[in-house]
Amino acid sequence: MENYKLPHTDFEISRLIFGCWAVVGGFNWGHQDKKDSLDAMREAFDNGITTFDTAEAYGNGASENLLAEALGDKRSDMIIASKVGPQDFLPDDVIKACERGLKNLKTDYIDLYQLHWPNPEIPLEDTMGALQKLKDDGKIRAYGVSNFGNKSLDICKESGFTISSNQMAYNLIFRAIEFSILPQCVEDNVPILCYSPIMQGLLTGKFDSAEQVPDDRARTRHFNKGRSQSRHQEEGCEALTFQTIDKIKKFAEESNVNMGNLSLAWLLAQKGVAAPIVGGRNADQVRKNLKTMEVKLTADMVNHLNEITLPLKEKLGSNADLWQTGGRVI
Ligand SMILES: NC(=O)c1ccc[n+]([C@@H]2O[C@H](COP(=O)([O-])OP(=O)(O)OC[C@H]3O[C@@H](n4cnc5c(N)ncnc54)[C@H](OP(=O)(O)O)[C@@H]3O)[C@@H](O)[C@H]2O)c1
């Protein structure tokens, strides 16, 4: 496994991060077997994935609990990234949320504590001040942000707080951050942690058409607003999405590379990307995703993937919110 040193930290993360959202099942994911979840996390750790991304929001603490159960005895050899939700951005609430996280995770420090989504109602400097206090007190080792657009990143920079990462939706069929957020992050030395890097399974080729995608996963702006769980007002671009997926699938076959691995390797080849955060619901998926580290893409392959996904990138535009029509990624 390759590792990556985040700025303003004294630790390295693994270049594949295990995402601990789907392992709790429920919203977005449906039924999940607990043993499969524990096996998936242990398989990841045993094969060099040291870094785990979780959040209080994933099952109201259940994901943090599960991580402690799976790997509690490995604490000193792992990196835990967790998040505080925007409803808790008042300074006192940030501290309380962190205390709850520590309790759920059965640990006395979190390595990377991230602001889950921007909250324009609360001055960011105040929230950042609370993160700095947690760092000074040794409760967290570093802090980062998530779903932060250009304006919020500007505030971070101007106020002199040293963020170590920005976690954003980024994958071959959702390239919105390339318009202005990724360039700013590169300029400001804020590495990207990519969430939904295989587009919640779509980039493994498991769905052949929009109709096959379950409603809770078809909430994204690729799909028509008529889907039952949709929270946007857009027509979507289902035909273009599946034409693009088809082209990626064919290219993966021609290149003799598994499609999911190809998609993750493309992210690893992007300047400014520290690591994809990939979910896995069982050990077998984890083993398959780990093979990404054996894939080496040539510049021509990266360029070809850029070209075949460009029309979809242009159609979905610069709104980096996967699910809503605008305003949340600021
Ligand atoms: N900051 C944020 O706002 C935010 C938002 C979303 C996610 N995240 C983080 O990012 C992580 C990953 O994102 P994500 O879970 O949305 O999407 P993802 O990693 O793109 O997709 C994960 C899902 O794809 C399927 N899958 C995984 N490996 C597979 C394989 N080898 N073959 C076939 N299917 C496979 C599994 O679901 P099925 O088996 O059910 O198909 C799995 O749950 C989350 O766990 C979370 O930590 C953060």
TrEMBL record:
Keywords for this protein: Oxidoreductase
Superkingdom: Bacteria
Matching Pfam families: Aldo_ket_red (PF00248)
Gene Ontology cellular component annotations, sorted alphabetically: cytosol
Record's signal peptide: none
GO molecular function, one term: oxidoreductase activity
Occurrences of domain NADP-dependent oxidoreductase (ranges): 15-308
Coiled coil: none
PANTHER family assigned: NAD(P)-LINKED OXIDOREDUCTASE SUPERFAMILY PROTEIN, NADH-SPECIFIC METHYLGLYOXAL REDUCTASE-RELATED
This protein's name: Oxidoreductase
